[in-house]
Amino acid sequence: MYKHKLFALFQAICYNNNVDIIDDTMKNELQKELLATGLSENESAIYLSALEMGETTVSRLAKKAGVKRTTAYLVLESLKEKGLISSLKKESASVFFAEDPKKLHDILEERQEKIDKIMPQLLAFTNMIDKKPEIRYFDGDEGIKEVYRDSLKYPDSEILTWYAQNFFTHFEENFFLEEYIPKRLKKKIWVRAILPDSKLIREWIKNDQEHLRKSKLISAEKYPISIELNVYGKNKVGIVSYEEEFAIIIESQKIHSSLKSIFEAMWDSWPE
């Protein structure tokens, strides 16, 4: 839109170099359009004034644009670098005049070409920027089951788990035996688990081999674990509180990586 307005203005000036050719409303609209092209407020004011006045001095341009004379010199140099203002010597003074407004279109095209050139690198950089973690909350036994089912979306992978013993007393053991474990085995998802040592847990891990699971036991008294933590997929962490009957899925690369490192450190420090 700015291109057509400015070009129409330029044509009018060519036929009638009248300093009052632009009314205030049109000037404000044109200045907004120029700002949208990337010109500063002072650059827009000086350029519009130069379009109106034709060949003129710095003093007259500064007064017309409503900027200080010292500022006008700096702005004119900037516009000259952009190819929108030219100057020449007349007698003892320099005079300035606006170039064809169509040059604005050339400037924008050149800018677009530069943006297109670096866009692949910009997009690659965007993928490296940290994003806020996505957190989903699940309530009740059915909600807890959904968190476990989510971990089944990644076949041929591994889940790192801190087990909580209280699932024996506060959850449906049949869900694991009849649904979750069979589906996990079918998808060839291995588990490495750190569990609190107890009689119930020792019975549970007797099936490690057939359940594609490797386990290590820690002291239940020294390291009590009352929630279950599952690190899985590329960036997911599942947190289950059986007694409080809720669960959370967190999607965060940083949290996932940090918990994975903590798990590996614990795993390596405990004997087989």
Describe the secondary structure blueprint for this structure.
Elements: H1 2-15, H2 24-36, H3 41-53, H4 58-65, H5 69-81, E1 85-90, E2 93-98, H6 102-126, E3 134-139, H7 140-150, E4 158-162, H8 167-170, H9 173-186, E5 190-196, H10 199-204, E6 213-218, E7 228-232, E8 236-241, E9 246-251, H11 253-269
Parallel strand pairs: 4-5, 5-6
Antiparallel strand pairs: 1-2, 3-9, 4-7, 7-8, 8-9
Helix pairs in contact: 2-3, 3-4, 3-5, 4-5
Based on Cα principal axes, name the global outline.
rod-shaped
CATH-derived topology of the largest domain:
Endonuclease, Chain A
CATH homologous superfamily designation of the largest domain: Endonuclease Chain A
Low-confidence stretches: 1-5, 13-21
How would you portray this structure in words?
The chain has helices spanning 2-15, 24-36, 41-53, 58-65, 69-81, 102-126, 140-150, 167-170, 173-186, 199-204, 253-269; strands spanning 85-90, 93-98, 134-139, 158-162, 190-196, 213-218, 228-232, 236-241, 246-251. 51% of the residues lie in helices and 19% in strands. Helix 3 (41-53) crosses helix 5 (69-81) and helix 4 (58-65) packs across helix 5 (69-81). It is α+β, with helices and mostly antiparallel strands. It is built from 11 helices and 9 strands. The protein folds into 2 domains: 2-124, Winged helix-like DNA-binding domain superfamily/Winged helix DNA-binding domain (Arc Repressor Mutant, subunit A, Orthogonal Bundle); 134-269, Endonuclease Chain A (Endonuclease, Chain A), CATH 3.30.870.10. A hairpin with a 4-residue loop joins strand 8 and strand 9. Residues 1-5 and 13-21 have low confidence and may be disordered. The chain starts with a helix and ends with a helix. The chain is rod-shaped. 22% of the residues are buried. The strands form 2 sheets. The chain has a 7-stranded mixed sheet with strand order 3-9-8-7-4-5-6.
